[in-house]
Amino acid sequence: MAGLKYDKIVKYVIRAKCEGPLHIGSSIGGKEDVLIHPVDKSPFIQASSIAGVFRSYVEECMDIKAEVLFGADHLDNDKSTTEQQSRIRFMDAIFDLSSVKMELRPHVKIDRKTGSVFEDKFSGQKFNMEYVGEGAEFTTAFYLYVDTKETQFLEDAVKEMLGAMKAGLLQFGAKKSSGAGKIIPVSVKERSFLMSKEQDRKEWFEEESLSDTAYEEVIHKLPEVTDRKNKYTVVIKGKTEGTILVKGLSVSEFGEGVPDSENIRNAKSEYIVPGSSFRGSIRSQMEKISIYLRKGFLIDDSFGKAGENDEEGYVGNLIFEDTIIGNRKENDAVDLRHRIHIDKFTGGVFQQGLFAEKNAFGDMELEIHIADRNHPDATLGLLLFAVRDLACKVVTLGSGFATGKGFMDISEIVVSSHDKKAKITYQENVQIEDDANMIQYAMAALKEVSQ
C-alpha cells in the first residue's frame, strides 16, 4: 500500500453460498475444468476475479467513480504513468470442500449460419463443462484503507456493493448469460482498526487470529439495493404438456431397469432445464423472427458477439436462469419409456437399438432478465414474439419434439420493470393487462430500431 494515505482499516469477513452453478475457468488442463487451489485442493475464486466483478458493478450502477475505490493508472503530461492506489484489497475465496458438489453439464458449439455444429474443426464441438453446484459455501475477506476524513462515503459505497451482492445482482465467473455465477452472502462481519490507537494497532497486527466476537455482524444493516442493471424481467409460468427430456451427461446407475438417458439434474438432484438449453431454444426462434423482420443485428445485441479481441466482442443483454421441473419425488417415480432405433434403409432395428429414457414433468417457472444495454426495449419485443411461439407450441424445450416431448402449457407471462408490471394470461382467450403500456412500447421500439 505504498503511497496511499490512510489511518483506518476496515476489515469485512464474508460468508457466502452459490445460488446456482458457478464456473471459474482453470488455466491448467482443459478450459472446461474448474479452477482448483494448489494448496487446499478445493475450487476457489481468485481475488482478481472478485475485484473485477465489484468494480464492474460500481462502474455500471453506482454514482461513485470506480477509480476512487479500485485505483487507476493516469498518463501524465510528460507521458509518464502515475498509479492511483486501490483502497480495497481482496482475498481469494476458497470453497469449503465439505459443502462442494460438482456438476458436469454438456454443451455444444453451434454455427449460427448453418444451425449445426461448427465444421471447420474435427473435434471439440461438443464439450462438458464443470461447475461448482448450488449450495457450495466459502469464507473470504477484504480490507478497506481510508483516511478518517473521507471514511463515511467510502464505507457507504462498500456496503452498497455488498447490498447488491445480497440482492443477487452480481454474477461471478463464466456462463453468466445462462444464469451461472450468482453468489449470495449469508453473513457479513465488520471490524475497524484505527491506526491512531495503540490497542487497534496491536489488534491489527494479530487480526488473523481474532475471534468472531471481535467482529460485528452487519448483513442486516446493508442497504436495500434496487436493480439498476436489468431493465426488464420476464417470468413464464406454466407446466409441461406431457413430458420433457433435456439429456444429462450420464446416468448415475447401470444395469437392468435403469435408463440409458435421463433429464439433467442440478447439484441438489432437482430435475432442471438449464439456462443454456432454454437460451438455445429461444435464440433459435428469435433468429428466425429477426430475419423475417430484417432486424438480424438484434441477435448480437441480445446474445452477444464473439470477437478476435476484447474490443470487437461484447456481451448480450439477455440472461436465462435455470428452471426446476416439477416435484423431485414425483419425477423420481416416473416410469421408464422404452424405445427402439430404426434403420431407415432396412426398416429393421439397429443392433443394440433398444433403449430406455427417463423423462420429467411438472410445473415450471422460466425466468429471463434483460440488461439495460443494447436496445433493451426492442429486445423485449423480439423476445415476446419467441415466448408467444413457446405458448403456441411452435417452440419446444429439450429433445424429442417429434415424439411429443418438450411442449409447454403456458398459463401466464409476466413482464416487470422496476415498479411497472404487465401480464399476459392464457385461458380460453388471451388476456393482456398492461396499464403502463410496456408491451406496446416494446413492439414500437422493435419496429423502429435500426443498427
TrEMBL record:
GO terms for biological process: defense response to virus. The keyword Transcription regulation does not apply. Keywords: Antiviral defense. Pfam families: RAMPs. Residues 16-183, 258-408 form the CRISPR type III-associated protein domain. This is CRISPR type III-associated protein domain-containing protein.
